[in-house]
Design goal:
single chain; 314 residues; mainly beta; Lipoxygenase-1; 2 domains; seven-stranded mixed sheet; 23 strands; 2% helix
C-alpha cells in the first residue's frame, strides 16, 4: 500500500457531505473521489499526492480548492492536516447541477393543552422529520461507482404531470408489455410478487421529480450471473407539455437502507457508506399523451456493469 496520502478536515465543514475531485499534477489526471463526509482521507495507488483537491458543497454552491504541494506521512485523525481552514479558497463560480427536491427539516404539530383556567396557553410540539442527505449530481455520460441501489429520477422544471415509464431491457426480466413497465397506468413495482427489483416513487401530477428505485442486491439474487443491467426511461405529458429538457438524475448508494419518500416521489438513504450522483444530458419531451395510457417517448437508457461498476447513459 502507498504510504503517502492526504487528510482533509475543516472546523467549518466537518460533518458535511461534499463532492471531491483530485487533480494529480504529476500525471495530469483527474480522479473522482465521489461523495465524502468531511473529514476524510485518501491514498493514491501509486506515488505521492501532489496537485489540487476540489471540494464542492451543493448546499451553498461553493467549491473549496486545496493545494497538495508535498508528500505527507500517513495521517491519523489526531495528526496535523496539510490544509488548515484558512488555506481553503472558496471559488463561487462553479455551476451547480440540479439537486433533489428539498425536504423540510422539521414539521411543527400544534398540540393544544385542555385547560379550564385563562393562565394556560397552547403549546407546540416539534416533531423532527427525516432529512435526505443531499448528493450532488455530476453531468456527463459515464461514471464508475460500486452500487447496491440506484435511484433513477426524471427531473423536469416546466410542464405538468410528466408520466414516466421505466423498465429493464437487459436482461429480459419479463417487462414485455406496457402493463409491466413502472409508472402511471403501468405497475407500481416489478416483479409484482416477491421482493421487487424496481419500485415506483409515485405519480407527480405537478412539476419537479419522479423516481424509480432499482434494487441491485435483489437483481443479483434473482438473476445470478447477469453482469449487465440496462434500464430504459420513457415519458410523455399527461398535463401541460413542457419545453425545457428533461434530465435523468441517477443517485447510486453503497450500503445502508433505502427509505421511500412518497411526498417527494422518490427514495433516499441516510445510512449509506458511499454515494454518487450522475446527471444525463437533457432531452426535450414533446409527446402529449392526450390522457391516454400509451408508451412514452424515448428519453435515454442507463447501462450499469455489476462487475466493473461502470455506468453510462446510452
Amino acid at each position: 500500500m502507498n504510504n503517502y496520502g492526504f487528510y482533509i478536515s475543516s472546523a467549518t465543514y466537518d460533518g458535511q457531505y461534499c463532492l471531491a475531485t483530485y487533480l494529480d499534477s504529476t500525471t495530469n489526471t483527474t480522479i473522482d473521489l465521489g461523495v465524502k463526509q468531511i473529514p476524510f482521507q485518501y491514498f493514491p495507488i501509486d506515488g505521492t499526492p501532489q496537485g489540487k483537491v476540489f471540494i464542492y458543497f451543493s448546499g451553498n454552491d461553493q467549491t473549496c480548492v486545496i493545494n497538495i504541494t508535498e508528500p505527507n506521512p500517513t495521517p491519523t485523525p489526531t495528526s496535523h492536516t496539510p490544509t488548515p481552514t484558512p488555506s481553503v479558497t472558496v471559488t463561487p463560480t462553479v455551476t451547480s447541477s440540479k439537486t433533489p427536491t428539498p425536504t423540510p427539516t422539521s414539521s411543527v404539530t400544534p398540540t393544544h393543552t385542555p385547560t379550564h383556567t385563562p393562565t394556560h396557553t397552547p403549546t407546540n410540539t416539534i416533531t423532527p422529520t427525516p432529512t435526505m442527505t443531499p448528493i450532488p449530481f455530476v453531468p456527463g455520460t459515464a461514471f464508475t461507482f460500486n452500487a447496491d441501489y440506484i435511484v433513477l429520477t426524471y427531473a423536469f422544471n416546466d410542464g405538468t404531470d410528466l408520466d414516466t415509464r421505466t423498465r429493464v431491457t437487459t436482461p429480459n426480466i419479463g417487462q414485455s408489455t406496457l402493463a409491466d413497465y413502472i409508472g402511471w397506468c403501468c405497475s407500481g413495482e416489478w416483479p409484482t410478487t416477491g421482493t421487487p427489483i424496481l419500485t415506483w416513487g409515485g405519480d407527480n401530477t405537478g412539476t419537479g421529480f419522479e423516481s424509480v428505485l432499482i434494487n441491485l442486491i435483489e437483481f443479483k439474487s434473482q438473476y445470478p450471473g447477469q453482469n449487465i443491467i440496462t434500464i430504459k426511461a420513457n415519458a410523455g405529458w399527461y398535463g401541460t407539455v413542457g419545453t425545457n429538457p428533461v434530465y435523468m438524475q441517477t443517485t447510486l448508494y453503497k450500503g445502508g437502507t433505502m427509505v421511500a419518500d412518497p411526498g417527494n416521489y422518490t427514495f433516499y438513504n441516510n445510512t449509506f457508506t458511499a454515494a454518487y450522483g450522475a446527471q444525463s444530458p437533457g432531452n426535450v419531451v414533446t409527446l402529449d399523451l392526450l390522457s391516454s395510457c400509451i408508451d412514452g417517448q424515448d428519453i435515454i437508457s442507463l447501462e450499469y456493469n455489476l462487475t466493473t461498476y461502470q455506468g453510462k447513459f446510452i
